[in-house]
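Hi R.,

Here's the chain you asked about this morning:
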Amino acid sequence: MALIKDEEINTIREQSDIVDIISQYLTLTKQGKNYVAVCPFHDDHSPSLVVSPEKQIFNCFTCRTGGNVFSFIMKYENVGFLEAVKMVADKVGYKINLDFVSANEKINQVDYEIMDLAKKYYLNNIFTEIGVSARKYLNSRKLGEDIIREFNLGLAPSSKNDLYKILIKKGYTVEKIEELGLINRVGLEVYDAFTNRIMIPIENLKGDVVGFSARIFNGETDAAKYINTRETPIFKKGQILFNFHNARKYIRNEKLCIIVEGNMDAINVSASGIKNVVALMGVALSLEQIKVIKRLNVPVVLMLDNDEAGLNATMKNGKLLQENGVIVKVIKLTGAKDPDEYIRIKGVDALKENIKYARNFIDFKLEFLKTNKNLENIDDLVNYVKEVINSLNNENDLTKQVVISKISKDYNIDYALLQNQINLMNVNHEIESSKKVKVKKYSKYELASAKVLYYMMNDAKYITIYKNKLGYLKERVERRLISEIIFYNNEHNSINLANFLTYIMEQQDLFEYVNQIISMNDENLNDDEFNNCIEIILKILKLDEINQLKEEIKKEMDVNKKVELISKLTELKKEV
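And the predicted structure, written out as C-alpha cells:
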C-alpha cells in the first residue's frame, strides 16, 4: 500500500465497472439486476458466480470466492494486489506509475537477468557471420527476420564456453549459472550446455525468459532433435504454455485458443498469420496449465501431431480440458504429420478452413474409441459401447441422447437399455460432484451475525443501531471485523462495501471472512430483518450466559453464593 495512496486506489476502483472488467474474462448473463457466469474458480457447470453492478462486487455462492474488481483480477490473473490495481487502471485508462516487482520476482531477479542476457547473446549470434547457416535453415522453413526477432530465436555456436565467460565477466557466479542449466561442469572444466543449435527462448506467463529449447539444424543424425532446459527455480514445465504471453491478446480477440504439440509448430503457425496459438510443454497438460487455459474462457482447438502418440495425447488432453469445463474441438490434419508440414504441403488457407470447421471433441472420441477394435466382434462392441457411455460424463443431455440414439440405430442395441446406463452414470456423477463441493451448514447465530455484519458494511446507519442495541458479538473474528468497520466509517464518514474490501485485503483472514459473509447474504437491506437478527443474537447470548451459570452453579460449593447464582439464573430465564 505504500506505493499508492488509498484515495487513488479507491478512485481507480470507482472509475472501473466490475461488470465491464469481468465480462472481458467471462461470459456474463443478465439475471434481474445482477449478472451471472460460470465460476472459473471451481469445477462449475452451471452459473454460480454473481456480479453485482450496484455494489460493485462479485461472489460465488458455491466455492465462497468473492470480492471487488481488484480481488477478481488477483485471483483470475494470479497476481498481487498492486499489480491488480495497475491492470485495472490500465483497463479504464487511468494513468498510474507503479514501479514494483513481486516478492518472487525479487527473489529470482538475478535468474531473470542471466536468462535475458543469454537470450540476447544467442539472438546476437544468429545475425553475425556464424549465424548464416542457421538463418538459411530458418528461412527455408519460411521464418524470416521478422519472426526470428518476434520469437527472439538465436544460435548457440560451436564454441566451448563463450556464454559462460560473458556471464562470469558480468559478475554472476558459476553456481548460479549452472543452477539455471546454462552450463555443465566436468571436473574443473566448464562447458556451455547448448552448442551448435538454434535456440528458442521459453517465457513464463508474464513474458520473462525462464528456459530454452535447443534444436539441431545441420542435419545431424546422431543427436537429439531437441534439448530443453532442465527444471530450475524459475522453469517449471507444468506452469508454462509456450507462446502464451504473446498469444493471449490474440486468443481473447479471436475467442479461440489453438494448442499444438511443439514449439516450432507454434512458431510456424504464428508466422502464417494465425497468432492465437500456444504449444504444450510435454505430452499432457498439467492442472496448472488447464487453469490458465480455463481462465481465458474461450473454446480450445487441439491440433496435435497426426500420429498414434498425437492422437492419444489429443484424447487425454481433450478429456482433461472437458472435465474442467473447457469447450474442446479437434483438428486431425490429414496428409501431414504436424501443422508445420501441413502448411508447407497444403497452405495456410487450408489450415484456416480446418480451424474454422474443427470437429467437436465428442465426434473425435467416438472415432478414437474404435481404435484397435473389430466392431463385428461382440466383446469389442460391448467394450466400445461401455467406453462411449463412460465418456459422456461431461456432455450435455442433448448430446448424450443423440449419441445413444446413434449407437442404438448403428448397432441394433435397445435404446431403453442404453438410456438406463446413461441414467446410472448420471446418478454416479451427481454423487461424485456433490462430494467435491461441501456446503457448510451455518448455525442460527452464524446466520444472524453474518447478516448484521453484512448490513454494517453496506450502510453506516446499521453501525449506529448495532452500537445502541447490541454492541457485542461472541467470536473474536467478528469483533475484529467490527473494529475495522467502525474505524473505516469514522475515517471516511461513510462506508462502501467495495472500497472496504480493498481496505482489509491485506488482512487475509478478515478478507476471506468478509467473502464468506457476502456469500451468505442477498443484497436487499431491510430494517426489520436487521432488528430481528439483533434480537436473535441477544437471545442466543443470554442462552449462552444461562448455560454458563448452570455450570457455575454445579461447581459452586458456597451455599450463599449458589443461592445468588440461582436467583440470577431465574431472572435471566424470565428475560429469555
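The radius of gyration is 31 Å.

Let me know if you need anything else.
M.
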